[in-house]
User: What shape does this take?
Amino acid sequence: MAILHTWGQNLLDHPHIHCVVPGGGLSPDGSSWVSSKREFLISVKVLAKLFRGKFLDYLKQAFQAHTLHFYGKNKELEIPRKFQKLIDQAYAKEWVVYVKKPFSGPKQVLQYLGNYTHRVAISNHRIIDVRDGRVIFKWKDYKDSGTMKTMSLTVEEFMRRFLLHVIPKRFVKIRFYGILSNRNKKEMLSRCRELLHEATGDDETGAESPDPKEPFMTCLTEEGYLLCPECQKGHMIEVMVIEPEPLLKNTFKLDSS
Assistant: This one.
């Protein structure tokens, strides 16, 4: 599954793709499940070069088919030699691919991404104030160890940045491949479950279930649910929950009407 995101915390262009990849797949004849190695999925260096080659090849095809459009300062890229120069520069750069295991398991990753992908650029809780023709909002500076900062933009600049990430009508930003492709998903997943002897219902492995609040709270706050708000490095541990004291029967209520 591949999911396109186009923004960074400061709302500027930061196009990147999140991909969820299973640790294995069906054999070509569909008779067996082929698992990846437990501690190794794929070489990121090979994947980066392969992705770079495929992406730039499709970009050149789009240019030749006249389906690419350039505006403003990029208008000169309509000239073939200018466009080719851009392609050559992109080939010369090392592209970055980041691969990691899901921390709390695949279910939590899918739940998190499912909520995260249906927002555009910024959520309401990050907007601190709108006054005097300016918008003030919180953002996380990843170049400064993820420090939370505030940014103030004119309303016009804020809207310009926000509208950069409103996708065109009928544009598909979430795509499914392989065993999750829409055409054969039902049959393929059924075959995978059969081969993996997947248990139905509750998890029978005996592993401790992750905190169900964590992905939800992380989605809302865009910060670690248990991350210390002061140092932004340590993690808080829930020791106990103190319930509110029950109201006494003879408690009088104040009527302010």
Notes: Residues 199-209 have pLDDT under 50 and may be disordered. The first strand starts at residue 2 and ends at 7. The two ends are 57 Å apart (CA to CA). Strands lie at 2-7, 13-19, 24-26, 33-35, 127-131, 134-141, 147-154, 174-175.
